[in-house]
Amino acid sequence: MELQETVSVPVFPAVDKDGFLRDIYPQRRPAVLRGLSLGECVEKWTVEYLGERGGDKEVKVHVSTVPHMDFLHKNFAYKTLPFNEFVKRASEKKHSDFFLCEDESYYLRSLGEDVRKEPADMSKQFPGLAEDFLIPQFFEPDQFFSSVFRISSCGLQLWTHYDVMDNLLAQVTGRKRVVLYSPQDALHLYLSGDKSEVLDIDSPDLNHFPDFVKAKRHECVLEPGDLLFIPALWFHNTRALQFGVGVNVFWRHLPADSYDRKDPYGNKDPVPASRALQGLERALHALDQLPQEYRDFYGRRMIQRIQQRTYCCSLSISTQNSLPSSQCTKPA
Ligand SMILES: O=C(O)CCC(=O)C(=O)O
User: Fold this and answer.
1) Domain encompassing residue 280
2) Is 132 in the pocket of ligand 1 (CB under 6 A)?
3) Same structural domain for residues 187 and 233?
4) What is the DSSP string of 287-328?
5) Total count of domains within the chain
6) Are 20 and 157 contained in the same domain?
7) What is the mean pLDDT of residues 257-278?
8) Pair 44, 82 in one domain
9) CATH code: domain of residue 195
10) Does residue 321 surpass a pLDDT of 80?
11) Angle 59-61-65 (CA atoms, 0-180°, nearest 5)?
């Protein structure tokens, strides 16, 4: 691949709540927090222990025959397994019982009790395991949204996507590579909704995705016991370097009524953003009444207006290139 600029995500050893809130959180950039206590889970969560304590509660899992899971083309299957059987299979390379093939891979993103309405909460779905995991108390209890189990076979890669809430991803066991892209690189990621169409980020098809090289790659490898702060809207792509167990905690940092009430996953756009996107569709529909030449002209004017009104010029090189700084305004 033509070289994409790559930077390492900074690692902060032994940061406490005050240090996080003062030095890291306001930067709105990813950060690895090392040396914090996640509780007894780091030592205890072996395959056997997880199976015993998690029991045979049924879980819906992703089963894949290939390393890159692709949500847009759904190249994996959803299957239901008892939790203990799932953990056993996810930890092994070859399976005697399988759905698709003997070396299939497994991934769990745990869900709430009522999957359409309720966010995942480990203390409700897996109380016997939740007591081993200390959720970092970096935010107010009423900001808590969900705690989600992330359990993956070795080698499995989750597509690049963003979430709308702030996130602490705790890697409890196993190593995991995480690649992140800034929200300001959104136009280089070929988005379809909240997901990037660029599936193979290590060797992308540049004929299809030529601008992908312009996105700056932020990369880290999480070790057991690490926490990764993923600010809302930062794109992330994970690859399990070993069988591993993680938990991610989402919390709200916008006023509660900014979030879609029917969003158990924490990935629906905030209410004002959805309204703005609907308004854009209406505006485009209105332009459809004009000949192409006029649509092109007014489309360009709209882009300029949107850039002037919304971009933070100090943050984006591509913005600075496309707009003279004198034209950058802050919202009234
Ligand atoms: O750790 C993973 O496998 C995925 C994490 C993720 O997508 C998240 O924390 O939002």
Assistant:
1) 271-327
2) no
3) yes
4) HTTS-HHHHHHHHHHHHHHHHHHH--GGG-HHHHHHS-GGG-
5) 2
6) yes
7) 91
8) yes
9) 2.60.120.650
10) no
11) 155
Q: Is 169 in the pocket of ligand 1 (CB under 6 A)?
A: yes
Taking the CA of residue 161 as reference, the ligand 1 atom at the shortest distance is: 7
Q: Is the pLDDT at 323 greater than 70, yes or no?
A: no
147 C-beta closer than 6 A to ligand 1:
no
The predicted model scores a pTM of 0.91
- C-beta separation of 76 from 62 below 8 A: yes
| The last residue of a domain, from among 229, 258, 287 | 258
pLDDT tens for residues 213-250? 999 999 999 999 999 999 999 999 999 999 999 999 99
Residues 319 and 248 in one domain: no
Q: Report the atom number in ligand 1 closest to the C-alpha of 152.
A: 3
User: For residue 56, what pLDDT band results from cuts at 50, 70 and 90?
Assistant: very high
154/297 same-domain check: no
Strand order in the sheet with 105-109: 11-13, 31-34, 226-230, 166-173, 244-251, 144-152, 105-109, 58-64, 76-82
Of the residues 200, 224, 258, the one at which a domain ends: 258
Give domain status of residue 265, yes or no. Answer: no
- Cα–Cα distance between 264 and 301 in angstroms, integer? 37
Residues 16, 146, single domain; the answer is: yes
- Cα 317 to ligand 1 centroid, rounded to whole Å: 28
Give tens-digit pLDDT for 61-113.
999 999 999 888 889 999 999 999 999 999 999 999 999 999 999 999 999 88
Residue 113 is predicted with a pLDDT of: 83
Residue 217 near ligand 1, beta carbon < 6 Å? no
Closest by alpha carbon to 17, among 36, 1, 4? Answer: 36
239 lines ligand 1 (CB under 6 A): no
109 in helix, strand or coil? strand
Give the pairing of strands 176-181 and 6-8: unpaired
- The reply to whether 201 and 305 lie within a common domain is no
pLDDT, residue 115, reads: 77
For ligand 1, the distance from its centroid to the CA atom of residue 238, given in whole angstroms, is: 7
Q: 70: CA distance to ligand 1 center in Å? A: 14
pLDDT at 190: 97
* Statement to judge: residues 288 and 154 lie in one domain: no
